[in-house]
Amino acid sequence: MKNLNNPADREEIASRLRALSPGDAARWGRMSVHQMVCHLNDSYRIALGEKHASPASGWLQRTLLKEIALNSPLRWAKGFPTRPEVEQGKGGSVPVDFHQDLAALLHSLDRFCDSLPTPCTAHPVFGPMSLKDWMRWGYLHPDHHLRQFGR
């Protein structure tokens, strides 16, 4: 299973991110490509402990949903709600300049891969996460949104 501990998988995600352009149109969802870049950056910053997201985690999310999301071959569902602190138009970072925001995302991706805090922070939906869990999530989350924009 792909994850960001694998250098090839890490480069795949970084390369797909670098291929984004401000004119990319969404195949589904409400976010623009620029908003998605900010959403992903906010999400990595939560894992790094730099941004707070309110928990929405119960037994079902911490067990069954987490297991399916991280360890099954199924693609993530479209339209799954996110936490308001990373949702565009609510508490997510406001897009400023596409290329600067993309550079910030790529920098956060590198920091996420190279210096995730130990012990790992809890995911707002999946609850406690191991380094292995975070590295799998760190691949799947951008993969989901990159597919949203045909990348």
Structure commentary:
With 151 residues, the protein is mostly helical. The chain has one domain (7-148): Four Helix Bundle (Hemerythrin (Met), subunit A) (Up-down Bundle), CATH 1.20.120. The protein has helices at residues 7-18, 33-47, 59-71, 98-115, 131-148. The longest helix has 18 residues, at 98-115. The chain is globular, with a radius of gyration of 14 Å. The two termini are 19 Å apart.
Percentage of residues in strands? under 5%
Q: Which consecutive residue ranges, at least 5 long each, have pLDDT under 50?
A: none
By CATH, the architecture is named: Up-down Bundle
Largest sheet features? none
Number of domains: 1
Number of H/I helices = 5
Oligomer: single chain
Structural class, by secondary structure, is: mainly alpha
Looking at the structure, the CATH topology is: Four Helix Bundle (Hemerythrin (Met), subunit A)
Topology:
Layout: H1 7-18, H2 33-47, H3 59-71, H4 98-115, H5 131-148
Helix pairs in contact: 1-4, 1-5, 2-4, 2-5
Offer a few descriptive terms.
151 residues, Four Helix Bundle (Hemerythrin (Met), subunit A), mainly alpha
In short:
This protein has 151 residues and is an all-alpha fold. The chain is built from 5 helices and no strands. The mean pLDDT is 91.
